[in-house]
Specification:
ten-stranded antiparallel β-sheet; about 5% helix; mainly beta
């Protein structure tokens, strides 16, 4: 059965330096999970130190507010549009003058999922997902934006996407083989389904975790776009469609989320072929 809850249901843990932590997904909730997911709130004037151990990998997704990443003598601005990869050995501090919220995910055994990391770690990288190419489903009005891929971040341990469901759109029933994934809902309303009977009404702040091999699908609501990010651990997760004729094929629109020229070009491809995007 899929795991479903809203971030607001998780009791906050107040830590030092003006940070509140909500542990969303971990081994206490999912014993065989391959990562840990936290929701962090940095209060105005607060800061969050980030130290990634050797063999680990982490990434963050800004949800609201703004902060500055201080690392290796550099200062980088991050806003609600930014996603960052934190490689093994990374050290930095997120400082927020006005306050910020973000998701932080740590993969403790990343080198097991991506043995190539032992020969050369992926680089520290921050991207603005609103500059990335928007892809349109061949079958309906759904849109996809790749935010973490092996080509972008240099690791096979993780993969991430932003997904947009206009009202009434629905994806075909499918499951994944070779790893689990979670969704974090950012805007709109809709419904997630799992197995033969599980129905989950979703809204902003909701988390849905699907186990390996668990059949599922998503449907947009009646008003406004349903927008969520989803992340797979590891990256090389196969997608299997109940009806092979409904395999999702994604067509480049030629624009980014802002409607202007995207940062790069992605060719038309089937959902299962994402290694080179």
């Amino acid at each position: 059965m899929a795991i479903h809850f809203n971030q607001s249901m998780i009791a906050p843990i107040v830590t030092a330096d003006g940070v509140t932590r909500q542990p969303l997904l971990n081994k206490q909730r999912v014993p065989d999970i391959l990562f840990e997911l936290d929701h962090l709130t940095i209060s105005p004037g607060g800061n969050k130190a980030l130290a990634i151990a050797p063999g680990e990998l982490a990434w963050f997704q800004m949800i609201d507010g703004a902060a500055a990443m201080h690392t290796a003598g550099r200062k980088l601005s991050v806003t609600a549009n930014h996603i960052g990869l934190l490689p093994p050995g990374f050290e930095g501090v997120l400082v927020s003058d006005a306050g910020a919220t973000l998701l932080l995910t740590v993969v403790p055994d990343a080198e097991i999922l991506d043995p190539a990391m032992s020969a050369g770690s992926p680089r520290f990288c921050i991207i603005d997902w609103q500059n990335e190419p928007v892809l349109q489903s061949e079958h309906d009005a759904r849109k996809r934006i790749y935010i973490v891929t092996p080509k972008m971040f240099g690791t096979q341990a993780i993969r991430g996407e932003m997904i947009i469901y206009p009202p009434g759109t629905e994806c075909p029933v499918h499951h994944h083989r070779g790893g689990a994934h979670f969704m974090f809902f950012l805007a709109g309303q809709g419904t997630c389904y799992a197995g033969p009977k599980q129905v989950m009404a979703v809204r902003p702040g909701d988390v849905v975790y699907y186990h390996d091999l668990e059949p599922h699908w998503v449907k947009g609501g009646t008003e406004g776009n349903l927008i969520f990010s989803e992340f797979f651990v590891p990256s090389a997760v196969a997608t299997v469609w109940d009806d092979p004729s409904k395999v999702c094929t994604w067509i480049p629109t030629g624009v980014n989320y802002r409607g202007s020229r995207p940062s790069r070009i992605i060719e038309k491809h089937a959902h299962s072929h994402t290694a080179d995007v």
